[in-house]
Design goal:
Elements (H helix, E strand, L loop, with lengths): L2 H42 L2 E2 L7 E2 L3 H7 L2 H33 L3 H16 L2 H12 L4 H8 L11 H29 L3 H9 L4 H12 L1 H16 L3 H6 L11 H10 L4 H26 L5
Helix pairs in contact: 2-13, 3-7, 3-10, 4-7, 7-10, 10-13, 12-13
């Protein structure tokens, strides 16, 4: 083998190693903060541990216990009611806003997209306290309701309104981010498709249904997955606004995990609750990828 060939191979190997060096910080972060905690959580779910005594292996007892727990199933229902409500409202509103913004001039788009993106960069605790101020009995929303002749609504102290209030707060926070992503997707659709549809006599709704929605599927998949990840990890809005009340009507699995782990010191049981949520979310995301992934070719 010639010296030239050896030098070429060494140069190629050097380039490959440089790539791995740049990836190393992310790999370390992923291993330390994602993979190891998930592995530790899955193992801990088979133990009974109160943070003081030594962990005691109990097998499937934690899972059997939560399967027979009415509070777990109530939190399970509230979790997916919350996730479903936020996804439907935030994604529908975001797609509608992105479609409307597409028709504005460049300056108008920038102003409105910036304005609706601001809630996403506000901290969850600050946003939660702001909504608490608006939703309390003497708050801003009830003030205007009484001015219009309506009775004040107990937004956070009645079960039928508490979950609705949390869904609206989380939807408000996510809509701007999703609208920006959809707007980017809409910008990539050639105008010639809409012009051809208009010549064929298609209405605005038909153009949206047969052109916009199919071509925005990659963005829809991304928005669905990212929104589900964000919403499923929502803890602060619920903790700040209701703390799981009233009467457990907003108790979700993540809040229940926190209460079991850090108030009742049942770390194994809390880990089992977290693992069931993780498995269910992975199944849902697999279904999303299977049915929303753009077709090959």
């Amino acid at each position: 083998m010639s010296n030239f060939t050896l030098r070429k191979k060494k140069r190629r190997l050097g380039v490959e190693y440089v790539g791995y060096v740049f990836l190393l910080p992310f790999i370390i972060y992923l291993a330390v903060w994602k993979i190891f905690p998930m592995a530790y959580l899955s193992v801990l779910s088979f133990f009974k541990w109160d943070l003081i005594s030594s962990p005691e292996f109990v097998g499937l007892k934690n899972y059997i216990r939560l399967a027979h727990s009415e509070k777990y199933w109530a939190a399970f229902y509230h979790t997916f009611l919350y996730i479903g409500g936020v996804l439907v409202i935030s994604i529908s509103a975001a797609l509608l806003l992105a479609t409307l913004f597409k028709g504005l001039d460049v300056k108008g788009r920038t102003i409105f997209l910036t304005a609706i993106f601001i809630p996403y960069i506000i901290s969850e605790s600050a946003g939660g306290y702001m909504w608490m101020w608006m939703l309390e009995e003497g708050g801003l929303i009830n003030y205007y309701l009484t001015k219009l002749g309506f009775s004040p609504i107990h937004w956070l102290s009645t079960p039928k309104w508490a979950m609705f209030s949390i869904i609206m707060m989380s939807s408000w926070r996510l809509t701007g981010y999703n609208a920006v992503i959809f707007f980017i997707g809409l910008q990539s659709i050639p105008e010639i498709y809409y012009e051809a549809a208009k010549i064929d006599g298609a209405t605005g709704f038909k153009s949206f249904w047969h052109i916009t929605l199919p071509l925005v599927r990659p963005m829809m998949l991304y928005v669905l997955v990212m929104s589900m990840i964000v919403v499923s990890q929502a803890f602060t809005p619920i903790y700040v606004l209701t703390g799981g009340g009233p009467y457990g009507s907003t108790d979700v699995l993540l809040l229940r995990t926190y209460n079991m782990a850090f108030e009742n010191y049942q770390m194994g049981y809390a880990s089992a609750i977290s693992m069931t949520l993780c498995v269910i979310l992975m199944i849902i995301m697999y279904i999303q990828f299977k049915y929303l992934k753009p077709a090959e070719g």
